[in-house]
């Protein structure tokens, strides 16, 4: 199921999934800098204000790798590994989560 925030350009893909009472929305964007990543991250937070967590990771030629788990311990590392293991550069992955009780990453 596609789910696109209202950003200009560089949106690549998105999806929504529900599992074990948790709802997740994920987006993939083209992203060429730290500033671009944070602009898009902020836009998703505005477009989805009721999510409990917003996890992201980016990998850019200009600024390297960055990530944030927003209280979901290790979840940011899963997204970082997704980017690096697939040799994705100039990309940003954001996951919004509505909580039940199961963590995305390891406990």
Task: Provide the fold topology.
Blueprint: E1 11-19, E2 22-30, H1 34-47, E3 53-60, E4 64-68, H2 75-85, E5 91-98
Separate helix tally = 2
**Major β-sheet annotation:** 5 strands, antiparallel
Contiguous low-pLDDT stretches (5 residues minimum) are: 5-9
Strand content: 35-45%
- Give average pLDDT, whole number: 85
Widest sheet, order of strands: 1-2-5-3-4
- Whole-Å distance between the termini? 29 Å
The count of DSSP E runs of length 2 or more, i.e. the number of strands, is 5
Radius of gyration based on Cα positions = 13 Å
Q: Please tell me what the overall shape is.
A: globular
Order of helices and strands: EEHEEHE
Oligomeric state of this protein: single chain
Helix/sheet category:
alpha+beta
Helix content: 10-25%
Structure description:
The structure is a single chain. This protein has 107 residues and is of the alpha+beta class. 23% of the residues lie in helices and 36% in strands. It has two helices and five strands; from the N terminus they run E-E-H-E-E-H-E. It has helices at residues 34-47, 75-85; strands spanning 11-19, 22-30, 53-60, 64-68, 91-98. A five-stranded antiparallel β-sheet has the order 1-2-5-3-4, sandwiched between helices. The protein is globular and about 40 Å long.
Which features would summarize this protein structure in a list?
2 helices, 5-stranded antiparallel beta sheet, single chain, globular, alpha+beta, 36% strand, 107 residues
């Amino acid at each position: 199921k596609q789910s696109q925030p209202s950003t200009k350009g560089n949106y690549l893909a998105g999806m929504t999934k529900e599992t074990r009472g948790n709802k997740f929305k994920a987006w993939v964007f083209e992203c060429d800098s730290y500033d671009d990543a944070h602009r898009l991250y902020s836009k998703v937070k505005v477009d989805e204000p009721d999510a409990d967590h917003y996890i992201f990771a980016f990998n850019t030629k200009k600024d390297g790798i960055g990530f944030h788990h927003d209280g979901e311990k290790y979840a940011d590392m899963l997204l970082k590994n997704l980017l690096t293991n697939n040799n994705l550069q100039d990309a940003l992955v954001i996951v919004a989560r509505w909580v039940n009780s199961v963590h995305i990453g390891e406990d």
